[in-house]
Amino acid sequence: MSTDFEQEMAEMDERRFKALTGLSKQEFHKLVPAFTESHAEIRQETYEKNQAKRQRRPGAGQKGRLDTMRKKLFFILYYFKNYPTFDTLGDRFALDRSKACTNAHHLTGVLCRALAKLGVLPKRQFDSVEDMKATLAQIEELFVDATERPHHRPQDDEEQREKYSGKKKQHTVKNTVISNAQRVILFLGYTVCGRQHDYGLFKSEFPPEEDWFKTFKVWVDLGYLGFNGDYTALEVNIPHKKPRKSKSQPNPQLTAEQKEENRHISSIRVVVEHAIGGLKRFTILIAKFRNHKDDFVDDVALVSAGLWNWKLSLQNSVCPY
Fold first, then answer.
1. How far apart are CA 262 and CA 254, in angstroms?
2. Whether 282 contacts 81, CB under 8 Å
3. In sequence order, which residues have a C-beta less than 8 Å from that of residue 283 and are 6 or more positions away?
């Protein structure tokens, strides 16, 4: 980072700025006020929590390299977009790797609070069917899928087995994603081990005993076979599965009408794939996740979803809910 970072950032063209942060300059600048406010709140809360131990007021002591809110925001967005090691990140911003690590974890929390203030974070769970209906009152169609991402190989044997995905042939974690037709991520399930089946995970988040989807049209893929029998919905759109091979059907095939219907469902349901693609604009959700801090693997998914919703809210004037 140059000594005059503000000038360096101002001179960046739009393409380079997006490549480094994942946001356009307009999206970045409009995020700064909420980020600044959130940083001040967390700083004050930390001071009050540790006030009995402190001898200095907030702001006292040596000033860090990231001495403005714009630098701090650029730093954490750069980390999410490019996911360098802390050695590389520290070198880019003239920080020791330990300070790069500390800042990345701290500023992730600040960014998460800022996105919450802006109302663009997806829901993580619904307390009841009524809560879900109230939150999604303006939504008619829900598009459901799960996203899986690579994770470093745990040293613990039991954790290795839990995170190993036979589908991906590597250690992974996954989240349930529900979007609307405008690709806004409405719901992001908590991060779980990749071994868990998509539909089993979904049923643990939305117990079939409740009428969660009675007022919604739902679009799912073949990973959610059984949805029709377990849930009541206004309309369920799920592709036809190819019949199993048997003695009576040595060469089973879908009919032309079924194939055409599958193509139609896929062409509409693709919006949730686009939402997941927006979530994974940030390399931290694509590269093998190597951080060890508790819950950080879940935090980065939530923040990335919030950033995607933030982009949509500005680009298309789309309200998340």
1. 10
2. yes
3. 80, 81, 82, 83
| Residue of 318, 56, 321 whose CA lies nearest to 182 | 318
Q: From residue 229, how far is each of 141, 210, 212 by CA, in Å?
A: 19, 13, 14
DSSP assignment of 257-315: HHHHHHHHHHHHHHHHHHHHHHHTTSGGGTSPB---STTHHHHHHHHHHHHHHHHHHHH
Q: Which two tokens stand for residue 157?
A: 């044997």
Integer Cα distance of 65 and 86 in angstroms:
15
Query: 122: exposed, middle or buried (C-beta count within 10 Å: 0-12, 13-18, 19+)?
Result: buried
Residue 67 confidence (pLDDT): 87
**What pLDDT is stored for residue 54 in this prediction?**
67
Residue 15 CB coordination number (10 Å):
9
User: What does the alpha-carbon distance between residue 240 and residue 242 come to, in Å, rounded to a whole number?
Assistant: 7
Instruction: Collect the ranges in the chain with pLDDT lower than 50.
Output: 2
CA distance 185 to 165: 24
* Torsion over CA: 55, 43, 79, 280 (sign): positive
- Please give the Cα distance from 265 to 109 (Å, whole number): 38
Radius of gyration of the chain (CA): 22
120's CB contacts (< 8 A; 6+ apart) are: 306, 309, 310, 313, 320
Give 50's contacts (C-beta < 8 A, 6+ positions apart): none
